[in-house]
Amino acid sequence: MDISIAWAFLPHEDPEVSLAFYRDVLGFEVRQDVGNGGMRWITVGPGGEGGAAIVLYPPAAEPDLTEEERATIAEMMGKGTYGRIVLSTSDLDATFERVQAGDAEVLQEPTTHPYGVRDFALRDPAGNTVRIQQSH
């Protein structure tokens, strides 16, 4: 079976701020930018790769959500418990320095865990948790 990841979705509250973070801090390229104003779906991914990408989307645009559900999503985004993604890099320390220089909210500095993963964690402008681990 040949299955690969095409897209992962992360919510955003402010498309310009989220775009700046993923493009300027993480160095991702913009692959698609669809919509208008706050209702923008922005697809970003590592430069030079046609593979997996992240779609930054406005969660309020979901047509079947109730107001209570919208409020719950907003509350979870504010706490950083709604969206998560794990990325990998070949040079964790250099990536951490770049991210830290970009004024990202660091949740955990580079750490080697007992289960063998070395990573760090930060929060994107919408509150999503982004973990970046050292690739082997």
Order of strands, main sheet, comes to: 1-4-3-2
> What radius of gyration results from the CA coordinates?
15 Å
Largest sheet: 4 strands, mixed
Beta content comes to 35-45%
Our count of helices gives 3
Number of strands: 8
First-last Cα distance: 24 Å
What global shape is seen? globular
The SSE string, one letter per element, is: EHEEEHEHEEE
Overall mean pLDDT: 90
Residue runs with pLDDT of under 50 for 5 or more positions = none
Secondary structural class: alpha/beta
Helix content bin: 25-40%
Q: Describe it for me?
A:
By secondary structure, the chain is of the alpha/beta class. It is built from three helices and eight strands, in the order βαβββαβαβββ. The chain is globular and about 40 Å long.
